[in-house]
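Dear support,

We are seeing what looks like truncated structure output for some complexes. This example has three components. We would appreciate it if you could run it in full and send us the complete token output so we can diff it against ours.
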Amino acid sequence: MAETGVVRAGMMTAEEILAPSPGARLRKRIFGHFGLMLGGGVLLLIILMALLAGVLSPHDPYDQQLARKLIPPFWHTSPKVTWDHVLGTDHLGRDYLSRLLHGAQVSLIIGFAAMVISGVIGTVIGVLAGYFGGRVDMAVNFIITTRLSMPVVLVALAVVSIVGSSLTVVIWVLGLLIWDRFAVVMRSATQQVRSLEFVTAAEAVGCSPARILLTEIAPNVMNHLIVVATLEMAHAILLEAALSFLGLGVQPPTPSWGLMISEAKGLMYFDPWLISIPGVALFLLVLSINLVGDGLRDVSAPENRS
Amino acid sequence: MGERVLTVEDLRVDIPVAAGMLHPVQGVTFHVDRGETVCIVGESGCGKSLTALAIMDLLPRSAKRTAMRLELQDQTLDGVAEARMADIRGNRMAMIFQEPMTSLNPAYTIGNQLEEAILRHKPVSRKDARKRAVHLLGRVGITAAEQRLRQYPHQLSGGLRQRVMIAMALMCGPALIVADEPTTALDVTIQAQILHLLAELQREFHMGLVLITHDLGIVARIATRVVVMYAGEVVETGPVDEIFRAPRHPYTQGLLACIPVPGKTRRGERLGVIPGMVPSLVGEMPYCHFASRCPIVIDECRAAPVPLTSEGGRGRRVRCIRAADVAAGALQAAGTAA
Amino acid sequence: MLAYSLKRLGVALLVALTVSLITFSMIYISGDPALAIAGEGARQQDVENIRRFYGFDRPIYVQYLDWLWSALHGDLGRSYNLRQPVADVIFQRLPTTMLLGACAITFALVLAIPLGVLAAVKPNSIFDRVSLTLAVIGQAMPSFWFALTLILWFGVYWRLLPITGQDSWWNFVMPSIALGYYVTPAVMRLTRAGMLEVLSSDYIRTARAKGLKPMRVLFKHALRNAIIPVVALAAVQFGFMLGGSIVIETIFQINGLGYLAWESIQRKDLPMMQAIVLVLSIIYVLITFLADMLNAFLDPRIRVA
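Here is the complete output from our reference environment:
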């Protein structure tokens, strides 16, 4: 193994000569990452469209015009195609583009809020387990194992059906169910940081656990937290879509992408674009969030730091 | 001396790295006869381990090996297809690695891993393979060999695992064994036992042994001949007694000054240190590699590459244009002048 | 190994017990289960009758212990909706879901492990990049949408596979792919990472130094070690699949546990919902326990401690 050390040492000396400035390195790390840029761009675009849905929508997403139902989108060659409904209309004659834009709001709100709730729960118990270890760790491990053994979609559906469905209920149910990955990652990240010398040093000078957690541990597990947050937001969005698709998520007539697919599935043999459009939208949103998450993981990985 | 087992002439290893081409091994020339122990010495990073891997053709994928001559007995190893090379490896030449703790597969028993070595190369039955494994384990000093065969690597200590590695290398009765710092990772007390064992087995089986080490004490005890490497090159080679008695390269002399010699080094006397740093091996370096650290460097040293030239018979070769001056005590003179 | 197994079994039992408690309390989330069953606008008298009939008037801990005691004896209550013992219906539907899950995990492993090995053998090659890209894309596709898209292309346009039902093996092809593809990226990444790590280890160099043929080095020495964590992952994913089968079974109308769950959720069949959640959780606990045992068995460092 001594030799690999040399190979590296040889590279180091050469690298030192050509080393870019820290700023240039950071820029290269961020801009050099194609996936991160692409994902970030698409995500930003979707967020902007959701924020400006009220302005951008050509029609009221709830406005039913049965006389103009099932108009195909612009790339079709049907005589019914009209630029008034760029992406066509659904079975009740509602403008598909307007519903898609408002649906982005629903996906983003649910994804973000559920992620925040699960993030708070998961981080708190994960950090506590990682920091205190011993019995606390055992208890948290047990809670995580128990949670993992319960099927998420099924429990979510059951609870929503008992309590009754609404946007708030869906957010809370998802938030209370998907904190497991936060807890697992935060636990091991905290364990790692905990064993580092500056934490021991802080303990030695008599800092309180609360202070150490806030000033020493928190900044050093932040990168992991952000990465998991993106992945869990994508997870929550997919789950919401699945719940709505099964009719127990967001309730009609609220435009949700999962619900749009559900409403269209009976018609998909005749008008497949009815499921392709919201499906592709969901896919792009989840893909862009995942790309941002993967990109952030690469950028913040210790081996890429200097 | 007996039959020529290994011939290495102008061996080079090139590895492309971010900053250009790395030349960790360049111009390595030496040979090993049957019954000889040749020690390759040098500080860490001089290319000795890569030389060993290059001989075995086990270099990392990105590394490129070239050589004027690279022969095992009468068989050339240069430019041989991987399938043919695999027939030779572990069969006619074997290797012992530095890290016994990680060099055995944790998923298989010792017996499985030992037998596999011979079943691959020789037309023997499983039963005979097991017999040979038991015999060799006994020979490398492992008691209760039958039981050991059924154990997994994690159940054995580092010293035992290295003995297993040695037995594994012997399974096919190779003509050459390459041992890359086989004792570095072991306890000091066990180091001596393992080396003693290696030397004994080398005599008994009449093999060629290439032993890579940075421990000159070991060299003095078991080497027939010595190859001194510095910054990827062989700087001096020859019979062990001559090298120790009269080093002709400033680096060899500096290296020998770093070890205390009983009866010669006076109590309280300071041991030598070689000042300076090993040069980067990225890119070409068409002059003496030791120039930047040499106390008797002259302008000519930096003018052109220095060839490895024969010095006074008995296979002595030195890569220094001032070899004669070194022999005459130029270094000591420079030392007192400074 | 024995001590480890016993400890692990103890944890598994404790988890199962906790899950039973959570599952039991599910019916109290809405507040009054009797009211929930009776539906809105029911007469006070009816609600009271229901409460007495189902025993909701007893103290909660008595209800739980009674429920648990019955459950341990295989009695999971009667379905409100099907008027049959819940346990009978569940065990009638369970094999279908297990079969679907087994097909799906097989599909995922058969696809993902070779891809992961190939990607690790030639890291950063075109092949490696393409398969990683496909993995990223695959993970972003909502499973129900993917299932519908499969139906559209393979069932409707190309007419290669039957769309719904469970009359032949062909019926299981699309559902297995739709359920299994989501696991493929994770298995592939883990196989690739494991192989990359193992391939750079010292014992692989030893194996090569013995002159073993490349295929033997790859499969006997490398894959054997890299596969250990994949086994655990596959087991966990199989557990998740059983839970996720609700979406796929509903779309393909496969009469398994998932479809049953969806029906009972729609009809607010509380005992049935409870029982399905409990059964799936316990199966998950059992599978992860077996996976841990298998893991320990595959890794001599745990097995022969």
